[in-house]
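Input/output pair, single chain:
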Amino acid sequence: MDKFIVSARKYRPQAFDTVVGQAHITTTLKNAIKNQQLAHAFLFCGPRGVGKTTCARILAKTINCENASPEGEACNTCHSCVSFNEGTSLNIHELDAASNNSVDDIRSLVEQVRFPPQAGKYKVYIIDEVHMLSSSAFNAFLKTLEEPPSYAIFILATTEKHKILPTILSRCQIFDFKRITTNDTVEHLEEICSKEHISAEKAGLQVIAQKSEGCMRDALSIMDKIVSFTNGQLTYHNTLEHLNILDADYYFKLIDSMEQQDLASALLLYDDINRKGFEGDMVMNGFAEFIRNLLVCKDEKVASLLEVVESFRERYLSTGKKISIAWLISALNVLNEAEINYKSARNKRLHVELAIIRLSYLQQAITLTGDGQGVTKKKLIDTVKPVALRRIPPFEIKQESTVPPAARSQENGTKLIIEEAPVQRANARTVNPETKVADPSAGSAATAGTIAAKTETPKKALGKSKLGSLENIRQQFANAQVDPDANKIIAVTDELLKQHWIGYTDKLKAKKNPAVQSFELATLTVTAENAFEVLTNNNLEQRFIEQERRFLSEFLQEQFNNRSLTYSIIVSDTPVHHIPIERPMNKREQFMQIVEQYPLIKELKDRLKLELDY
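Output:
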């Protein structure tokens, strides 16, 4: 039994013309070989499985070929080509930078570069996955890469170009490989199937090409697995079954149910899909791609972007024409949001079903306005943000009043002018002047009388405040005029001072302030008309009272109606209140004290012959 070789190795291109999907690179390399304009260093960049290492090997074989064709291809018959194909060539060295990434490995490579080739023109060094080299290895490689011997050529290959040092990039000729298109992949797979005598449907090969995402090596590996699974009969349905891909026919049925707003059919269809073992995120991802394809079908200019199985192309085009662009865009937004939140959802199935429900009734959320303003989309989800209510600014109603101003107050150069507008008494209400925003449920309070406060110096409005009625204001001014002694200063006496001092101490007790004891032990002495002294026993009490100085001063000045009232805190030489400190008794002294009060305890101790542990 012959040893099996996977298709990716068996059908690896051996010439530039057999490389799939990279004509822009192979043509450049062939022309460089024909014109003898080879660079000393190449950098091949691109995704995995697109032919970077393959092109590097073909280039290394071709430049050492003894009988190269005029088109720049190797003959594959000379000694150099045969030794290369058999893997015995001494002029071509391959280094895997993923496992040989240290500076010592690069130094060993640099040592080999010093020796010229024994046969052939060039010694070619292919370094794969070069981005895996360490910074020290890159630095050790710089000088040799910049000025190598005339017989040395370096070919670097990488999938991550951004990880390579700029000093390396500037010393290389860079070639960017692109992903292989679906059509090119299908043609190459058909060619291999014909050589291997495999019966393959084109629809199945198209599914494989789409699944590989431009990677030829992946496409060949997938085809080998499916051929083994189907015993050489590669069809569309067994390809879907093996790759665990949902048939597009389900998506067509699903969108038909949503278009008819048949929620029951849509949910039953999803249940059928779920029973086949397809996860919710896979369904949403596939359905989003399906809607994207329908959106592409809306315009003939971009219809070429539609990469689907040929048997479904006409069905895509006909379905895309029936559905509006607004629905397709809204559906993509819904699916995108659902797919983002899928991982955080606890009930995955319910999360997908909610998305299906929203899509089923999405047509009702898109309405045409009656005035021809176009398409408007309703919000599908109620917002949870608080709605900012617009503040109603206070307004003034100035009318000529038949009632003369009843009260005028002139204080600090300010003149208050009160005007009354004709209002109904039933609707009048009193509003706190300090309130800044009116209650929206106040009803007809906006029709109440307005007070326009004006100042003579400087001539600027004092502030807009809503007052209840003119009688209340008149009463306030009348009360202010009735009590002429309201601002009279109260004389400071020992009795009044002690009374207010106790009142402030009670406030501190209610707040559980630690300064209470200091206030209780302090002694007050009136020293002048507007001054008094606070006598404390020690510095600690003085500090406690000093901490309350600002609040205490405001309290006493308010009580005596005297803003010039001051006081000083003095520490007394002899404590005003002396509290004797008793020394704690030891256990023997405590027992003797108890015996003095209760003599029978000693008698009990003696009878029972007890010994006390002092």
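The chain has five domains: 7-176, 182-243, 248-368, 494-571, 584-613. Confidence is low (pLDDT under 50) at residues 368-376, 380-384, 397-467, 576-581.
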